[in-house]
C-alpha cells in the first residue's frame, strides 16, 4: 500500500513567501482600482464605458437566444434539486449546444465568446440551475481551457481544447483535506520518473471531479537534479490508472454539483502534460483566476435580477393593512436595495469583463473586488427576498406547489448563493489578497523599512527611496477634483439625477482611503499584516467606491446610447446614496472598533475560559476527526467516477 506523501512543515514566513512568489509581479498595464487605493481617481481609465465589437455582440446575442430556449425547455431545475443530480441528457444537450466551449477559440471548436457574453451566459443559465452554472464555470474558468489558453503549449492546446469544447468536462484540483488557502503546505506529490511524473495524494472539493474527463492537478515536484521542483500544474486524464473518486460530497446548496474527493496512487502522467515550468503552478492558478473570478459575480448578477423580479411581482399582490406590502416603507427599502444593488453589480461585472476583453488594463484587483462584492451583496439580496416573502420565503418550492401556490425557490436561492462567499477565495482571503495588491506601491518603496530581517544598511537605502516617493505622493492627497463643485458635470445632464456629486465623493474618499492606509502603515509597520479587521474595512471601502464608479459610468453609457438612461441614472443615484452610507460607516470603523477587545475574547475562548457558557446544550455532531486522515484505506473504496457519455 502506497503511503500518503508527508505534509511539508512550513513556518508562517515561508507560507507568506510562497504566496508572494506566486503573485504576478509588477504592473505593466494601468489599473483603475490600484490607482483608487492610492488616492488617484482615474476616471479616464473607465470612461467612456468600453463597448464590445459589433461582431462579438452579434455572435454573443445569437448564442444567448439559443441558450435561453434551452434553459426554458430542457432544464428541469426542480428535478435537479430533488434528485441532487444534473440529468445526463441535460449535460449532453449542453455539449451539443456548444456550452462547454463558450470561451474556447473557434479554431479549436469553441464558440469564441468574449468575457462579457460568457458572463451573460452564466448569469442566464445560473438562474435556471445554479448547479449547471457551477459546472460550466468550473470547467471553463478554472478547469483545463483557461490555463492552457494562457500557459499551454501549442501541442497541448491542439490536443485538449477541441475535447473541452465539445465533449470533455474538466475540473481543477488544488484543495486538500488539510490545505485550503495556504498552498505552501500542499502535500500531493509529483515525482519525476523518466519522461513521466508519478502522482500521489488526495484532493478535496473537486468541483466537476466526479464526472470529469480531464483534470488540472496541482502537485509538488521534489527538488532534484535537473528538476527545480515546486508546486506544478498538470493536465491529467481522469480515467488514468490509480485515480479513485472516493466520495461525492453533498452540501446545503448547489445540490446538483458533482463535487468529490479524488485520490491519486501511483498515477503516471506524461511530462508533456505539465503546464508551464516546474514550480509555476501557483502563479498559473492565480493568473487564471484574474479573469476566472468574474464568472462567479456574473452568476450573482443573475441571482439579483431574479430576486428583483420575484420581489416586484410578490410585493405588488401581497396586501397588508389595506395596501400592497411594497408600499410599506420597511419592505420598500428592501426592494430599493435589491434594484439598486443589482444595477451596480451588473455595472461592475460588465465593466470588468469588457476591460478583460480589451486587455488594456490590469484587472487583477477589479476582478477580485467583483468577486468579493458580488458574493456578499447577492447573499444579502437573497436574504432580503426571503424576508419579503415571509413564511413563504422559508418554505420550499416543492411544498408551495403541493398546496397550490407558485413554486418560488427563494430558500434554495439563499442556500445556493451561500457558497459564493467561500468559493475561489473566501471573503476573508479576498480581503487579504486585495489588500496586498492595494499596498503594493508602498511595499515596493518602503517594504524593507518594516521588514525585521533587513539589515540597517538596506533600511537606510530603503528610507531614502521611500522619502522621495512620499515627498511626491503625500501632497497630492490633500486636494483634488472632488472639492470642486463643478467637477464631473458631464454626469449631471439636465433632467437627470445628479451623479457628479457622487463622483466627487469617490474622488475625495479615494484620497481619504489612501491617507488612512499610509497612517496605518506608519503606525503598525511590520504588524500591519496582522490587522486583518482594518485591512478588510479598507478593501470594503474600495469595493464600494469601485461599484459607485462603475454604476455612474454605466448610467451615463446607457443615457448616451438611449437605453433606459433616465431609469439608469435614478438607480445609480440611489445606489450611490446607499453605498456612501456604508462607506462612511466603514471609515468610522477604521479607528473606532472592537478589534483589540475581540482579540482578547478569542484568546480567552481558546484557553477554555468560557466553557461554562457552552453548558446546557447537546452536540448532535457525529464522531470522527476534524480533518480526515489521507492515508490510503486498508480496503480500497469503490470508484464513484461517473463520466457522462
Overview of this structure, please?
45% of the residues are buried. Helix 6 (115-128) packs antiparallel against helix 7, helix 11 (295-317) packs antiparallel against helix 12 (329-358) and helix 13 (364-389) packs antiparallel against helix 16. The chain is 53% helix and 9% strand. Strands 1-4-5-8 form a four-stranded mixed β-sheet. The protein has a four-stranded antiparallel β-sheet with strand order 2-3-7-6, covered by helices on one side. Strand 4 and strand 5 form a beta hairpin. It has helices at 12-22, 32-37, 54-74, 77-83, 88-97, 115-128, 130-142, 145-151, 154-166, 281-292, 295-317, 329-358, 364-389, 391-394, 397-402, 410-418, 427-438, 440-446, 456-473, 500-524, 532-560, 565-591, 595-606, and strands spanning 170-173, 189-193, 196-207, 214-221, 230-237, 243-248, 259-270, 274-275, 319-320, 323-324.
Amino acid at each position: 500500500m502506497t503511503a500518503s506523501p508527508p505534509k511539508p512543515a512550513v513556518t508562517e514566513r515561508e507560507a507568506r513567501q510562497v504566496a508572494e512568489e506566486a503573485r504576478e509581479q509588477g504592473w505593466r498595464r494601468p489599473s483603475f482600482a490600484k490607482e483608487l487605493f492610492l488616492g488617484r481617481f482615474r476616471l479616464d481609465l473607465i470612461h467612456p464605458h468600453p463597448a464590445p465589437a459589433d461582431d462579438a455582440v452579434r455572435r454573443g446575442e445569437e448564442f444567448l437566444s439559443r441558450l435561453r430556449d434551452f434553459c426554458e425547455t430542457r432544464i428541469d431545475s426542480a428535478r435537479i434539486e430533488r434528485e441532487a443530480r444534473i440529468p445526463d441528457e441535460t449535460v449532453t444537450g449542453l455539449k451539443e449546444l456548444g456550452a462547454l466551449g463558450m470561451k474556447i477559440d473557434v479554431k479549436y471548436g469553441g464558440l469564441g465568446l468574449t468575457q462579457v457574453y460568457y458572463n451573460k451566459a452564466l448569469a442566464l443559465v445560473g438562474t435556471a440551475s445554479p448547479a449547471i452554472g457551477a459546472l460550466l464555470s468550473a470547467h471553463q474558468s478554472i478547469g483545463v481551457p483557461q490555463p492552457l489558453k494562457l500557459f499551454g503549449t501549442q501541442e497541448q492546446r491542439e490536443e485538449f481544447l477541441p475535447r473541452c469544447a465539445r465533449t470533455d468536462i474538466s475540473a481543477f484540483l488544488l484543495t486538500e483535506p488539510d490545505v485550503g488557502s495556504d498552498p505552501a503546505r500542499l502535500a500531493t506529490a509529483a515525482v519525476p520518473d523518466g519522461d513521466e511524473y508519478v502522482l500521489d495524494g488526495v484532493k478535496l472539493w473537486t468541483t466537476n471531479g466526479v464526472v470529469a474527463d480531464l483534470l488540472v492537478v496541482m502537485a509538488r515536484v521534489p527538488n532534484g537534479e535537473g528538476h527545480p521542483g515546486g508546486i506544478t500544474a498538470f493536465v491529467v486524464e481522469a480515467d488514468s490508472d490509480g485515480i479513485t473518486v472516493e466520495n461525492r460530497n453533498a452540501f446545503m446548496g448547489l445540490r446538483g454539483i458533482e463535487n468529490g474527493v479524488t485520490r491519486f496512487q501511483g498515477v503516471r502522467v506524461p511530462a508533456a502534460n505539465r503546464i508551464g515550468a516546474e514550480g509555476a503552478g501557483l502563479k498559473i492558478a492565480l493568473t487564471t483566476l484574474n479573469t476566472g473570478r468574474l464568472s462567479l459575480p456574473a452568476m450573482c448578477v443573475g441571482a439579483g435580477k431574479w430576486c428583483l423580479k420575484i420581489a416586484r411581482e410578490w410585493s405588488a399582490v401581497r396586501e397588508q393593512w389595506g395596501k400592497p406590502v411594497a408600499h410599506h416603507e420597511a419592505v420598500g427599502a428592501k426592494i430599493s436595495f435589491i434594484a439598486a444593488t443589482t444595477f451596480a453589480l451588473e455595472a461592475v461585472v460588465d465593466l470588468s469583463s469588457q476591460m478583460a476583453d480589451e486587455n488594456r488594463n490590469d484587472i487583477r484587483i477589479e476582478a477580485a473586488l467583483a468577486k468579493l462584492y458580488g458574493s456578499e451583496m447577492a447573499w444579502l439580496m437573497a436574504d432580503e427576498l426571503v424576508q419579503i416573502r415571509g413564511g413563504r420565503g422559508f418554505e420550499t418550492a416543492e411544498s408551495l406547489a403541493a398546496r397550490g401556490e407558485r413554486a418560488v425557490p427563494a430558500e434554495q436561492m439563499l442556500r445556493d448563493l451561500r457558497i459564493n462567499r467561500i468559493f475561489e477565495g473566501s471573503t476573508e482571503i479576498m480581503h487579504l489578497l486585495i489588500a496586498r495588491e492595494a499596498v503594493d506601491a508602498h511595499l515596493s518603496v518602503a517594504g524593507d523599512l518594516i521588514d525585521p530581517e533587513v539589515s540597517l544598511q538596506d533600511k537606510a537605502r530603503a528610507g531614502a527611496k521611500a522619502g522621495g516617493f512620499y515627498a511626491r505622493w503625500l501632497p497630492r492627497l490633500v486636494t483634488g477634483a472632488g472639492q470642486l463643485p463643478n467637477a464631473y458635470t458631464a454626469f449631471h445632464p439636465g433632467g437627470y439625477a445628479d451623479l457628479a456629486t457622487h463622483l466627487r465623493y469617490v474622488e475625495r474618499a479615494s484620497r481619504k482611503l489612501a491617507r488612512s492606509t499610509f497612517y496605518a502603515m506608519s503606525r503598525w509597520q511590520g504588524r500591519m499584516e496582522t490587522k486583518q479587521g482594518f485591512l478588510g474595512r479598507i478593501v470594503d471601502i474600495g469595493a464600494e467606491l469601485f461599484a459607485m464608479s462603475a454604476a455612474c459610468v454605466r448610467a451615463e453609457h446607457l443615457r448616451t446610447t438611449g437605453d433606459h438612461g433616465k431609469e439608469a441614472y435614478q438607480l445609480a443615484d440611489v445606489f450611490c446614496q446607499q453605498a456612501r452610507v456604508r462607506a462612511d460607516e466603514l471609515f468610522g470603523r477604521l479607528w473606532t472598533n472592537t478589534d483589540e477587545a475581540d482579540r482578547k475574547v478569542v484568546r480567552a475562548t481558546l484557553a477554555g475560559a468560557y466553557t461554562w457558557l457552552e453548558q446546557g446544550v447537546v452536540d448532535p455532531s457525529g464522531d470522527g476527526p476534524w480533518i480526515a486522515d489521507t492515508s490510503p484505506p486498508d480496503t480500497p473504496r469503490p470508484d464513484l467516477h461517473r463520466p457522462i457519455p
